[in-house]
Specification:
about 500 residues; alpha/beta; 6-stranded mixed sheet; 5-stranded mixed sheet; glucokinase activity
Length: about 500
């Protein structure tokens, strides 16, 4: 496969124009993005970031740029015990997290997974939050924490409009939930009301956390230069620290705020149509949300396997693979999982893995077929890594320009199975960032449990800022008293 890949260089004169391999190459060229095209994509995203931040333009912006009300990253002085609640599917997690200043560590002391019965997902909001409050109490009781009043970080992975760090309005349910009386309501208020109804325990301050922000914050305690968070797994998203003066939808100009870009929606206005292939169009049309999350559908784990499958079917129908014979499994939508791409592209066992996958699909293959399938996977995963790298470079360049720095040194906290499990993805992404953001020195740090430990860290930072604000007010009050005393003496 390496020899074949080196021979099939895009734009090369080998193989001859009438060769089947040349026909395969013509399909793969559609996934190849030149440096110039990646720069164009980056520039389009740069303009969309500005539109999303605008007070009057954000309504129509495909990249939503949501304020998170997280106003600082960790400084290493955070400490204490915290609870974290992670609700994003049919199960939710409760965690007890300890932040240790001296050792610069965030420890998960204990955790518990609680199921949400299917009927409860379709019931009333009061039932759902009563169930969450009951599970939270069971956790506290079993770990002798029921008499403590601990601050809580709440990762609520549904579309919300955040109004403050502790106020978040549910826009709509997704992922099979449809509880009545919750859409349009503040989920923090609903949680606190459910706990109050019980009357047998209490919680401290609550911080609402997006999982991407949690990714950045969980890395930020270990590396205080971490100011970007990125997830590239089933879906994709990123956040970064923006200058407050540019966040037109929130009052105040001083300091910074973390912005949840929701960059998966990049291209929803048609701006990526020139790089979408016919296979991307089919994936979009067959999805549950056509026309939405265009960028995500080109790069994330939920869709990469299906893009590969559609291309393999087309190559087979054109007589360029498997002797022109498909199989029932290959013709089954979503049967080709993204994890197969990672297995096929492994350096040492890739060819063997390819043949196992093809046999699993009931296909009659030869060695050339195996090599072509590896090239197909490589073309599609490489495009994903490069597009993701171009988007990340846009954020890094923006931070550098915002701060008027000749060179930016920053860290990106990263999570997601595509980044962590694919053998070449991370290196291709980094190479693209180096190419498109040459004045940015970027370190990558893999996040540990962004929705758990990261949520606790958001709460810890919010507490630190509140404490500093109180101390400042007290010192200002003392200064005022001293000035009044001086005036009286005079």
């Amino acid at each position: 496969a390496p020899e074949l890949r080196s021979k099939i260089t895009l734009g090369s004169r080998w193989p001859p124009s009438n060769s089947p391999i040349r026909s395969v190459q013509r399909y793969l060229e559609r996934f190849h993005l030149t440096r110039e095209k990646l720069q164009e994509v980056s520039e389009r995203l740069r303009k969309d970031l500005i539109r999303g931040l605008g007070k009057h333009s954000h309504h129509k912006a495909p990249v939503k740029m949501l304020p998170t009300f997280v106003r600082a990253t960790p400084d290493g002085t955070e400490k204490g015990d915290f609870l974290a609640l992670d609700l994003g599917g049919t199960n939710f997690r409760v965690l007890h997290v300890r932040v240790m200043e001296e050792q610069q560590r965030v420890l998960k002391m204990d955790s518990q997974i609680c199921a949400i019965p299917k009927e409860m997902m379709q019931g009333t909001g009061e039932q759902l939050f009563d169930h969450i409050a009951a599970c939270l109490y069971d956790f506290l009781l079993s770990h002798n924490l029921e008499r403590e009043t601990l601050p809580l970080g709440f990762t609520f992975s549904f579309p919300c409009e955040q109004k403050e760090i502790d106020k978040s309005i549910l826009i709509r349910w997704t992922k099979g939930f449809n509880c009545s009386g919750v859409e349009g309501e503040d989920v923090v208020k609903l949680l606190k009301e459910a706990i109050r109804r019980r009357g047998d325990y209490d919680i401290g301050s609550v911080a609402m956390v997006n999982d991407t922000v949690g990714t950045m914050m969980s890395c930020g305690f270990r590396d205080q230069s971490c100011e970007i968070g990125m997830i590239i797994g089933t879906g994709t998203n990123a956040c970064y620290m923006e200058e407050m003066k540019n966040v037109k939808r929130v009052e105040g100009e001083a300091g910074r705020m973390c912005i949840n870009t929701e960059w998966g929606g990049f291209g929803d206005d048609g701006s990526l149509r020139d790089i979408q292939t016919e296979f991307d169009v089919v994936v979009d049309e067959m999805s549950i949300n056509p026309g939405v999350h265009t960028f995500e559908k080109m790069i994330s784990g939920m869709y990469l396997g299906e893009i590969v499958r559609l291309l393999l079917v087309r190559l087979t129908e054109d007589g360029l693979l498997f002797g022109g014979r498909t199989s029932k499994a290959l013709l089954t939508p979503e049967a080709f999982e993204t994890k197969f791409i990672s297995e096929i592209e492994e350096q040492d066992n890739g060819l063997e893995n390819t043949q196992k996958v093809l046999s699993k699909f009931g296909l009659k293959w030869d060695t050339v077929d195996s090599c072509v399938v590896r090239l197909v996977c490589d073309a599609i995963s490489s495009r994903s890594a490069r597009l993701c790298g171009a988007a990340l470079a846009t954020l890094a360049n923006r931070i550098r320009v915002n701060r008027r720095q000749e060179r930016l040194k920053t860290t990106v906290g990263v999570d997601g199975t595509v980044y962590k499990k694919h053998p070449n993805f991370s290196e291709e992404l980094r190479a693209t960032v180096r190419l498109l953001a040459p004045k940015c020195d970027i370190t990558f740090l893999v996040s540990e449990d962004g929705s758990g430990k990261g949520a606790a860290m958001v709460t810890a930072v919010a507490q630190r800022l509140a404490r500093q604000s109180r101390l400042l007010e007290e010192s200002d009050g003392e200064t005022d008293d001293e000035e009044e005393e001086e005036e009286e003496d005079q």
